[in-house]
Amino acid sequence: MNKIKTIIRKEWAEVFKNRMVIFTVAFLPLLMTAIPLVIIFSTGAITSDASTLTNLDAEMPTELTDAMCPEGLNGADCFQVFLVSQFMMMFMIIPVAIPVTIAAYSIVGEKTTRSLEPLLATPITTIELLIGKCLSAAIPAVLATYAAFGLFALGSWILVSDKILLTALLDARWLIAIFIVGPLLAVMAVTFALMVSSRVSDPRVAEQVSMVIIVPVLAGFFGQMAGLFVLNKTVISWVAVVMLALDAGLIYLATNVFQREQILTRWK
Amino acid sequence: MIHTETLTKRFKEVLAVDNLSLDIREGEVFGFLGPNGAGKTTTVRMLTSLIGPTAGTATVAGFAIGRQDTDIRRTVGVLTETPGMYDNLSAEVNLRIFADLYEVNDAAGQVEKYLKMLGLYDRRLDTAGTFSKGMKQKLAIARALLHEPKIIFLDEPTAALDPEAAHLVRDFIAELKKEGRTIFLCTHNLDEADRLCDRIGVFKSRLLVLDTPANLRASIFGRKVVFHLRAADDRLAQAVRSLNFVREVKVVENKLLVNLEDPEAHNPEIVRVLVGVGAEVQFVGELRHSLEDVYLQLVKAA
């Protein structure tokens, strides 16, 4: 455990000396928080317009209203909840994008600076090294996601006076997504990036290839926008279960892909 | 302390290490010489449990490679071919990380001790990236010693260092030798090997020879004694050649070069003979072949 802590401390000491990394960690969550808050602010005007209210009541599909809108919420408020919900998937980009930039560099970066061999010569085990590297990338991403959600919740509380609407905006779907799916996504992104980082010899290639992991999240975002599925509690819970299985498989793969000998001898 | 038996490493078609068998005693400084690509670093990597052998066995400090790898890594100190420091971190933090990874009890104390010992204490808060090559190498040596290993592998410790820094590193290795540590020294610097090593193995995929520097010289070139005379000629050479223990005599200017097995025993007799035939002996000395001559001879033959 102490060795894992040392690796985390080392990674953070190195990573956070880079201002671009700090910028990435801070900027992305702020952007992802600002977008839904702007939507809440701008669509707030709609709810005061009686004619729009009636039209929206008639046009919202029942599967959407069932999934997102509690009883007592009018059509316009329900539409507002729907719009903001679309950006839940955008929030899920935070725990994927932030750790990828950190993890993609972590092994290949040590190869290029030749610091990997002395590190591997210590009594650290492969699993300790990988857990350390994984956590050092995942923890900032998860904390940034939580912080962004905290800001979003605070902003919503300030902007929305209706308690029913506020509860609908920050319902269980959001909580499952942020507190369960988010960390699982971060672990998936990190293990994938570590695998890539173990196999390539150029940090730029590692970063570019690792970014592929964002594609499923974007696909989810656009699929939801296109109405292919509705992100209700059941769907999100299933996503969490699938993610858990996927993470277990990826961790197993990553420990097998990380072959000390190949990494040292193939690297030129 | 280090024992290998037919240790072999093959990378696809390339046979990097071929049937290496050797025994390195406790407290010995063992020089591992060989040209680039001879398999020296591969051998060090196998003995430090960084890579596994294709065949053969080895034990390091009693631990078997391939089976007790973590124990081996805990026991040995390694100076890798390149320092590989974390350039964005200070010298102190660099060492502290490794002290923690080696689970050193008094990590802060050990870091301070070696920073002071290697003359880096005043620069401890500077990032390693601002260090010169020599300073980085010293920092890497400190890193290899933090956990007080009994066995130290040094891969080219003075490569790319200026003479002053190289001298300092060599002095430091001599200090480690005095402390009774076992040192496995890979080097291209034959003078360094000659001065520091108790025994030397010349290696080119396989072990070509293994002996003390003095014995290697003697076995390849024999022992040659130079008799400086006021005037040397064939008559004097013939007189010396008539002695049955003399292997070879050459006249070079006003000197006689005599090849002997045991100069300490035979020199007085030769001097007597030379004086007897009228030679004026000015002084007598042994002709020392450099280790470089030995090395080149062996590698060329291989």
SSE arrangement:
The complex is a heterodimer of chains A (268) and B (302).
Chain A: H1 2-15, H2 19-43, H3 50-59, H4 62-68, H5 75-86, H6 88-91, H7 94-112, H8 116-120, H9 126-159, H10 163-169, H11 172-199, H12 203-210, H13 214-225, H14 233-257, H15 260-266
Helix pairs in contact in A: 1-9, 2-5, 2-7, 2-9, 3-5, 7-9, 7-11, 7-12, 9-11, 11-12, 11-14
Chain B: E1 2-11, E2 14-24, E3 29-33, H1 40-47, E4 55-60, E5 63-64, H2 69-75, E6 76-79, H3 91-101, H4 107-117, H5 133-145, E7 151-155, H6 163-178, E8 182-187, H7 190-196, E9 199-204, E10 206-211, H8 213-221, E11 223-229, H9 234-241, E12 248-252, E13 255-260, H10 263-276, E14 281-287, H11 291-301
Parallel strand pairs in B: 3-8, 3-9, 6-7, 7-8
Antiparallel strand pairs in B: 1-2, 1-4, 4-5, 9-10, 11-13, 11-14, 12-13
Helix pairs in contact in B: 3-4, 8-11
Keywords, separated by commas or semicolons:
heterodimer, A: 268 residues, mainly alpha, 15 helices, B: 302 residues, alpha/beta, Rossmann fold, Alpha-Beta Plaits, 2 domains, four-stranded antiparallel beta sheet, 14 strands
- The count of β-strands of chain A is 0
| Proportion of strand residues of chain A | under 5%
* Tally of separate helices of chain A: 15
User: Level of helix content of chain B?
Assistant: 25-40%
Strand order of the largest sheet of chain B: 6-7-8-3-9-10
Q: How many domains would you count in the coordinates of chain A? A: 1
What is the percentage of strand-forming residues of chain B?
25-35%
What best-fitting shape of chain A do the alpha-carbon axes yield?
Answer: elongated
CATH superfamily of the largest domain in chain B: P-loop containing nucleotide triphosphate hydrolases
CATH architecture of the largest domain in chain B: 3-Layer(aba) Sandwich
Biggest sheet features of chain B? 6 strands, mixed
> How many strands appear in the DSSP assignment of chain B?
14
Residue-averaged pLDDT of chain A: 83
Biggest interface, chains and residue tallies: A-B, 26 and 30 residues
